[in-house]
């Protein structure tokens, strides 16, 4: 069963058309910019924790970095909200692109690692800085790998799609 009729219905909603076609500063480019800000908070805070666990910068205490998880979750929810709006604007473009699913999988893996890092390393008050770094090293390395790949996959979405929107005539509008 094809989901193209569902994509077409979504693309014909007022919200979808407004996001794609409006000249308003609050339409597509604002949402995309908000998505980038969310990514900066989410990935930036995660990368800072990962790099510190790997010894960069060596003088920054590790335990207080637990507070960065607030930024991680704020960034995540900004990404979810803005991502849903971007998906409403172009459901066919995203949902027919395997790269979109790769991006979501990588984000899920990176977030899982960040949660494991928080619970098993940063929240363990019995660990010294050195022990935290040793116990968290594998988490940090894999987290960095997943974040770099997730950001790359997300960026490639602008270039790897084959179908932008389902057309009203029943076919596709290809770019």
Give a concise summary:
By secondary structure, the protein is mainly alpha-helical.
Structural features:
mainly alpha, 175 residues, elongated
Describe the protein in words.
With about 180 residues, the chain is mostly helical. It has one domain (about 5-175). The chain is about 70% helix and about 0% strand. The protein has helices at about 5-10, 15-20, 30-55, 70-90, 90-95, 100-120, 130-160, and strands at about 165, 170-175. The chain has a two-stranded antiparallel sheet. Helix 3 (about 30-55) packs antiparallel against helix 7 (about 130-160). The chain starts with a helix and ends with a strand.
Assembly state = single chain
Quote the average pLDDT. Answer: 93
Q: Please count the beta strands (DSSP E, at least 2 residues each).
A: 2
**Strands ordered across the widest β-sheet:** 1-2
Strand content: under 5%
Largest sheet: 2 strands, antiparallel
Helix-strand topology string: HHHHHHHEE
Q: State Rg.
A: 19 Å
Number of helices: 7
In one word, what is the shape?
elongated
> Structural class, please?
mainly alpha
Number of domains: 1
Into which percent range does the helicity of residues fall?
A: over 70%
Flag low-confidence runs: 171-175
């Amino acid at each position: 069963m094809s989901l193209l009729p569902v994509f077409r219905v979504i693309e014909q909603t007022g919200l979808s058309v407004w996001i794609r076609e409006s000249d308003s500063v609050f339409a597509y480019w604002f949402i995309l910019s908000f998505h980038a800000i969310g990514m900066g908070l989410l990935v930036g805070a995660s990368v800072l924790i990962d790099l510190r666990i790997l010894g960069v910068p060596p003088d920054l205490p590790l335990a207080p970095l637990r507070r960065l998880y607030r930024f991680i979750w704020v960034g995540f929810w900004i990404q979810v909200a803005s991502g849903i709006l971007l998906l409403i604007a172009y459901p066919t473009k995203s949902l027919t692109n395997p790269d979109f699913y790769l991006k979501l999988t990588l984000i899920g893996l990176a977030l899982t690692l960040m949660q494991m890092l928080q619970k098993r390393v940063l929240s363990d008050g019995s660990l010294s800085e050195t022990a935290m770094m040793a116990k968290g090293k594998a988490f940090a390395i894999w987290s960095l790998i997943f974040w770099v790949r997730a950001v790359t996959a997300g960026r490639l979405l602008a270039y790897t799609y084959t179908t932008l929107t389902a057309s009203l005539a029943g076919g596709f509008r290809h770019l």
